[in-house]
Amino acid sequence: MPAVSQKQQKFFGIVRAIQKGEMAPTTPETAKAAADMKKSDVKDFASTKHKGLPEKKKVQERIDYADSKQMKRFADEKKRNKEQDARMKHGKRWKEFTRDVDAAKNRLRPGEVKKLVDGKWVSNKN
């Protein structure tokens, strides 16, 4: 199993050196990994080439639905992505397209009547 990042490969290089007796354990993590893991597994991780590996693996951010700041940031990001998707789909005419969509939403359908109820316009077609 190859290493997934350069940092992981370097870590297992240190663990391999400890297992071979070339160096003393530098941290408790390296000592524990050297004692617990098989030499062949450590060799697989340590022998991975750096080319094409990220420096550090990116961890995907978890969403805490109880955190209001995080939810606001998530909603803002979703809105921004929606705008960007519309731009990519409709190109230079995306503003014109969004104006046409808004006009179509406000247009009355055949046989439709809107009444003002409790301060809101309500359609008879809904």
Itemize the secondary structure elements and their pairings.
Elements: H1 6-20, H2 28-36, H3 39-46, H4 68-90, H5 94-106, E1 114-117, E2 120-123
Antiparallel strand pairs: 1-2
Helix pairs in contact: 1-2, 1-3
List keywords for this structure.
mainly alpha, 2 domains, two-stranded antiparallel ribbon
Radius of gyration: 29 Å
- Uncertain regions spanning at least 5 consecutive residues: none
Order of helices and strands: HHHHHEE
Structural class by secondary-structure content: mainly alpha
Beta-strand segment tally:
2
Beta percentage is 5-15%
**Overall residue-averaged pLDDT value:** 84
Q: What about the largest sheet?
A: 2 strands, antiparallel
| Oligomeric category | single chain
Number of domains: 2
Helix share bin: 40-55%
Could you tell me how far the N terminus lies from the C terminus, measured between alpha carbons in angstroms? 59 Å
* Gross geometry: elongated
User: So how many helices?
Assistant: 5
Q: Biggest sheet: strands side by side, in what order?
A: 1-2
Structure report:
This protein is mainly alpha-helical and 126 residues long. It has two domains: 6-46, no CATH class; 68-123, no CATH class. 54% of the residues lie in helices and 6% in strands. The protein has five helices and two strands, in the order αααααββ. A two-stranded antiparallel ribbon has the order 1-2. α1 crosses α2 (28-36) and α1 packs across α3. The longest helix has 23 residues, at 68-90. The radius of gyration is 29 Å and the shape is elongated. The termini are far apart. The relative contact order is 0.09.
